[in-house]
Amino acid sequence: MNSNVPFRGIIAYPITPFTADNAVDLPTYRRLVERLVGSGSHGIAPLGSTGVLPYLTDEERDAVTKATLQQVAGRVPVLVGVSHLTTTGVVRHARFAEQAGAAGIMVIPMSYWKLTDNEIFQHFDRVASAVSVPIMAYNNPATGGLDMSPTLLKRLLEIPNVTMIKESTGDVQRMQALRQLLGEDVAFYNGSNPLALAAFAAGATGWCTAAPNLAPELTMGLYEAVQQQDLTAARQLFYQQFELLQFIVAKGLPRAIKAGLELLGEQAGELRAPLQPLTEAEQQELGRILDRVQVPATAG
Amino acid sequence: MNSNVPFRGIIAYPITPFTADNAVDLPTYRRLVERLVGSGSHGIAPLGSTGVLPYLTDEERDAVTKATLQQVAGRVPVLVGVSHLTTTGVVRHARFAEQAGAAGIMVIPMSYWKLTDNEIFQHFDRVASAVSVPIMAYNNPATGGLDMSPTLLKRLLEIPNVTMIKESTGDVQRMQALRQLLGEDVAFYNGSNPLALAAFAAGATGWCTAAPNLAPELTMGLYEAVQQQDLTAARQLFYQQFELLQFIVAKGLPRAIKAGLELLGEQAGELRAPLQPLTEAEQQELGRILDRVQVPATAG
Amino acid sequence: MNSNVPFRGIIAYPITPFTADNAVDLPTYRRLVERLVGSGSHGIAPLGSTGVLPYLTDEERDAVTKATLQQVAGRVPVLVGVSHLTTTGVVRHARFAEQAGAAGIMVIPMSYWKLTDNEIFQHFDRVASAVSVPIMAYNNPATGGLDMSPTLLKRLLEIPNVTMIKESTGDVQRMQALRQLLGEDVAFYNGSNPLALAAFAAGATGWCTAAPNLAPELTMGLYEAVQQQDLTAARQLFYQQFELLQFIVAKGLPRAIKAGLELLGEQAGELRAPLQPLTEAEQQELGRILDRVQVPATAG
Amino acid sequence: MNSNVPFRGIIAYPITPFTADNAVDLPTYRRLVERLVGSGSHGIAPLGSTGVLPYLTDEERDAVTKATLQQVAGRVPVLVGVSHLTTTGVVRHARFAEQAGAAGIMVIPMSYWKLTDNEIFQHFDRVASAVSVPIMAYNNPATGGLDMSPTLLKRLLEIPNVTMIKESTGDVQRMQALRQLLGEDVAFYNGSNPLALAAFAAGATGWCTAAPNLAPELTMGLYEAVQQQDLTAARQLFYQQFELLQFIVAKGLPRAIKAGLELLGEQAGELRAPLQPLTEAEQQELGRILDRVQVPATAG
C-alpha cells in the first residue's frame, strides 16, 4: 500500500446520528466511530451515503469531519465524503478535509441535471487541482443519479490524484470491465454489499460498507478468508451475512443501521426528516436476522 | 379557476442566469421573466429544474423568489419551487414563498436515499401544515430520484392544500391512470415536453414548460388549439415544435434554453458548474432547429 | 385509402379458440370473426398475438387464414399475421396469405437471438420479394423480443411493399418520432391499447386491437369522435374503456378476451397450454369492469 | 454426484451447423461434438440457445438429439434442450430425449405471452409427469422472455424430477438468492458467461457455456482452479478469457462460435436465416481476441 492508495480491506461507514432537536449528535457519533475502529475496520469513511451527507449543512459537515479525525487519531486512514451539487461546493469541502487530515476524499458526481462526461471530468479535474490528497471516484447511479461508464472512469484516473474507484452499480460485470480496462493494478472498491464475495473474487482492493456497524466479525472475516484463498470459508462467511446485507440495502443504510445498533443495545440517535425509523415490523425482522447472524458467529 | 387551483395553460419556467463570477444575475433574470410574461404565458414558475434550484444557496433562492414576484407584479400567478432534501428546508422555503406572494408552491420529494411512501406523505404533510398556499406535488423520477405512484399521489391530494399534480415521468399512461383514479376534476399538469399534445388530449389542466423561452407562439398556440377542439391545428403546431422539445429535453433545459436565448439575441448569463455550455456543434444544431421552428410560425 | 395502405380505423383481432382436445375450433372461430365484422370493425387481423400465432402449427395457421377470408368474404380488408422465427417460415406463410386473398400481411421479427438491424432488414427484404401484398412491419419488444428503432423502421419502409408500421412499445413518443422522421403521410398504427387516444391525437391511421371483441361501440366510437375532431367526446369515450383496456393488456389478450366473451354469453373455446384461464377472482373483476363499461354505453 | 443431478463442471454447448441449402449438417455437427468431448468437457448440451433450438423443426431436433447421443457414446452425460412454446410440444421432445438416452433435459419456459407463475408451474409439472429423467429448469429472460423468480424456482424444485436450475439473468445476486433460499445442497448452474468466476465463488455446481468451442483449456482450467481453491489462478484464468466471453455474448453465441471455429480452422457450416454471419470487422476483432487468448494459454 502506498500513499496514493491508502485504503484496503474493510472501509467502514458510520451513520450520522441526530439529537431530538435535529442537530448532529457528535458525542454519539464519536462513540459509533470508536466502535468501528475498535472492531478492526481497516478504514473509516464519514459523510458517505450512510452518513446522510446531502442532508447536512456545510458547518455540520465540517464538524463531522473534524470529529472523525480526532476520534480515529491516526489508527486507521480516514476517507471523507466531500460531494456537493456544485463544483465550488466540492472544492470547499475537499480543502477542509485535506486540512483536517483525511488520508483520502471521496467524490460522487451528484446530479440533478444529468451531467455529460465532459462536465463530470471538468468537475473532478477542478477538485483535484485544488487539493493533493488522493481522490476516490464513486459511481452509484441509485443515489447519485449518474452512471459513470468504465471508459469515463478510466479517463478520470488520468487525473494524477484520482487514484481509486468505488463501484456501486450492483453489477459485478462492471467491476470486471474496470479491471479488464485498467489492468490488475487498478484500485477498485466494492460499494454494493450483496456483491462482497463476487467483488473480492474479481479482485477488489476493498469493501466500502456500513455492515461493520452490525456484524464486524463477519465482514472482517470474509476479507481475511479471501486473503488466505480459503474460498470455502469465504463463501460460508458471506452467506452467513448475506441476508443482513440484503436487508440493510433494501431498507436504506441510515435507517437500517440505526435500528440494528439499537437492537444491539447501542445509542444511535435520531434520523433527520424526511427519513423515518423502520416500522415496528421491520425492526422485528431485523432482530430475527441479527439473531441468526450472531448465533453461528459465536459458535464458529 | 379557483384559488385552490390557480394555474392553467402554459406555466413558463425561466432559467437562472449567473454572472461571470458565479453570482445570480438578477437584472438578466428579471428581463427573462418579463419576456415570458410579455409573450403570453399563463403562469411563471421560478426555481424549477430549469432554474437549477438545487444548485442555489438559501439566500440566492430567496432573492430569485422576490425578484420574480416583483417583476411579474400580479399579472399572472407565480408558482415557486421550494424543494429541499430535508423537510425542515422545504418548510423554510415554503414560508418564504408564501410571504413573498406566490400563488402556489411546487414540491418535488428530492431523494438521495429512496424515501418510503410514508416518508413522502409525512414530508408533504409537514410542509402543508406550515403554509396555506396551494401546493403542486411534482413527480419526476429522472431528476428527483423518486417515482410517486398514482396511489401515493392520490393520498397526497387528501392533504387539504395539496391540490395539483405535475407529472413528468414521460409516460402518458401515468397521467391517464391519475385521471382514472382521481376523476375528471383532478388538476394535473404535464411536465414532460414531448408529451404536450398527448397530455392535453388526456385532459391535462396545464403544461409546465421552459419552451416559451424559445417558441412562445407555438406553446401558447397549441394550448389554444386544444381549447378550441381543433385537433388538426393542435397536431400541426405540436409537430412544428416537437424537434425543439426533444432537443431541449435531451440536452438539459438550463443548457439548451441558455443557448437558444443567445441564438435569439438575448443575454442569458452563465451556467453554474458543473453545468457547462452546449458544444459548438450542439449550438449549431439548435440554431438549425430554431430556424425551422420560426419560419413556419411567422408564415402561419 | 389506396391499395398500398388498405387499413384504417379499428383493425380487430380475433382470438383463436381451441376444442377440448386441443385442436383449433374453426366453427367457433368463424362465429367470433362474424361478430367483429358485424359490429363495425374496419379490418380483421387473424393470427396476431391475440390469436396465439406462435402456438399454432403451419397447418393450423393455414386453416385459420382460409377460414377468416371465407367468413369475412370481402366485407372488410383482412390483415394476416405471417411471422415465424425463420425467414423461410415467414416466406411460406406470406405466400399462403397472399394466395388466400389477404389485403395485407403483418410481420413481427420474432427473436430468440437478438437480431441485428441488418438481419431484420434482410428478413423483411426476402419476405417482401416473395409476395406483392402490402406488408405491415410490427414493432413489439414485449412479445417479439426485439425493439426496432424509428431509424430502422424508416429503412424498412424503403422496401417497396413495406407500407405500414404498427407500433406497440407503449410509448407515444415513439409514434411521434416516427411521424417526425417519416412525414405526415406515413401510415402508422397503434398496437398499444392504453395509448389509443394519444396515438390518434398523434396522427395514427388506425388502432390494432382486440377490444372490439368486448366493447365494439366504444372502440368504434372513439375513432369516430377523433375523425369529427370532437376531443371532449373522444376523451370521454376513451376513459370509459380505459380500465378495460388496461385489464386486457395486464392479463394477456387471449386469456382476457376469452373470459370476457364468456361473461358476455359467447362461446370462446379453450386456451392452448401453457396458457390457462383467468382465475375466478380475475373473472369476477373483469365482470365488474364490463358492467361499468356497458351501462354508460347503453345510456349514452 | 448422483443420478438426480448428473451434471457438474463445464457443460459444453455445440452450435447447430447448416448446409448451404439450409439443412442441418449432421456430419459437421458430430465433428464439433467430438471436439468438445475430446477437450475435456464434463457434459454436452445439444439444442440450447447456442444450438438455435427454436429455429429447428421437430424432425431436425430429433436428428440432432440422436446424433449427439451416438457421438458422445456415454463418455460424458448429455443434457438435451426440449423447450417448445406449447406444453404438448415440450412433452413430445422430452420423451424423445429420454428414450434416446439423455442423462437430463433442459426446459426454458419460452414465452410469447408472458406466462403466470401458475402456468409455468403447470407447464413443468406436466412435462415432469411424462418422463423420469432429471430436469434442469432454465431461467433466461433475455432469450426466453420470462423471468422466473427465486421463489418460483423453489416451487419448481418441489416437482420430484426437477432437480437442477440454470440461471442466466446475468445477475450474481440472483444465484446468491437461490442458494440462500434453497440451501447449500441446491444444484444451480451458471448460464451467463461473464459471471463464470462470480458464480463459482457463489457456489455454482457447473457452468453451461459455449466457450469450450473456442478456448477449452481456459474454461476447464477455471473450474479446476476453483476446485483447488486457488483463487489467484482462477482470477487470472478468468480475466484471460473475459474479453472472449464478453464478445461471444455481445455478438450472439451461434454467430460468434461459428466465426471463432472458422478462425481456428474448423468447418462450422452455415447459419439459418434470419441469422447472418458476423461482419468482416467483427471477425477480425474476434481474431485478435483469440490471438490474445491463445498466446498466454500456451505460455502458461
From TrEMBL, chains A, B, C, D:
It holds the Pfam family DHDPS. InterPro entries: Aldolase_TIM, DapA-like. Coiled coil: none annotated. Keywords: Lyase, Plasmid. It comes from the Bacteria. The keyword Lyase applies. Belongs to the DapA family. This is Dihydrodipicolinate synthase family protein.
